[in-house]
Hints:
The chain has about 200 residues and is α+β, with helices and mostly antiparallel strands. It folds into two domains: about 5-35 and about 140-195, no CATH class; about 40-130, Umud Fragment, subunit A. Helix content is about 40%, strand content about 30%. It has a seven-stranded antiparallel β-sheet. Strands 8-9 form a two-stranded antiparallel sheet. Strand 4 and strand 5 form a beta hairpin. Helix 1 (about 5-40) packs across helix 3. About 15% of the residues are buried. The model has no long low-confidence stretch (mean pLDDT about 80). One of its GO terms (molecular function) is signal peptidase activity.
Amino acid sequence: MDDKGRGFVNSGRRELALNIGAIAGLICIAAASLSMFLGIKPLVFQSGSMSPSIQTGALAFARTVPADQLGVGDVVSVTNASGVRITHRVTSLEPVGGDEMMMTMRGDANGADDPVPYYVSEADRVLWHMNGLGYAMAWLSNPVAIFLGGMVAGGLLVIAFGRTGTTTAGPASGDGAKTDSADSRTMREMEEARHG
């Protein structure tokens, strides 16, 4: 492959690496913005209590809303008295005073409501979910995936900002400078034309 073809391939790799990095960066910025400005948080379903509509390993996005904005049929996530997060469907709501509501919930796969009601002034309402995506999210948060992600990012930087062409020794001008091989040919051609 000649120098021109090699430069084209390197340019294509560099552009691809920059595009991949830009897309990954935009995804990170979008996720951070959603979380920071809109209060949207990710939830990973670890049990099948909401099957078949939301399966084990699903990734959901939820937003905290006041209890008076909840409705029967909403899928809501709350923390129970033991500190365990429960995400089930609301089956009834009853005001108990102030901005607090007594809420009963049930998992879609369960035959009965949860054993105790939840007293909430706000709760995380599920806005959207995708089955199976939670497994990927869980894997991406483990140390091996973080290390591999750093390696990929480093590789993209090397490809994007690494050397751009081959270098050869320049004309014997005594300064020891190196130049691109295409520039060397141009200078040789100019010298031949001048002496020729």
